[in-house]
Amino acid sequence: MTAQHLYAEGIVDKIIQEPAGGAHNDYDQSARYLDSALSEQLAEAVSCSQEERLSRRYSKLRHFGRWGTADKETGPEPSA
């Protein structure tokens, strides 16, 4: 499973860019990308109320395991 699959299914919130050739080729740049992504997410999180953060977390966790249904509100259709 790739990062793109995990993102499409709503399991991860963002795919963090890697330096050319992979993270193992430039640890410092990898750390800068990670710092930027985490700072962005933290800023978003603190701008919401605790109730809103809990509601979002609950909603996200409730959708785990619903493979292939990320874009569907009702889930899979019943078989006839």
Identify the overall geometry.
Answer: flat
Question: How much β-strand is present in the residues?
Answer: under 5%
- The overall average pLDDT, rounded, is 84
Find the count of extended strands (DSSP E, 2+ residues). Answer: 0
Radius of gyration: 16 Å
Distance between the termini: 31 Å
* Count of discrete alpha- or pi-helical segments spanning 4 or more residues: 3
Helix content: 40-55%
Order of helices and strands: HHH
Main β-sheet: number of strands, strand sense, barrel status?
none
The secondary structure category is mainly alpha
Spans of at least 5 consecutive residues with low confidence: 73-80
Architecture overview:
With 80 residues, the protein is mainly α. The protein has a domain at 22-53. The protein is 49% helix and 0% strand. It is built from three helices and no strands. It has helices at residues 3-8, 27-46, 50-62.
What's the quick description here?
The protein has helices at 3-8, 27-46, 50-62. 49% of the residues lie in helices and 0% in strands.
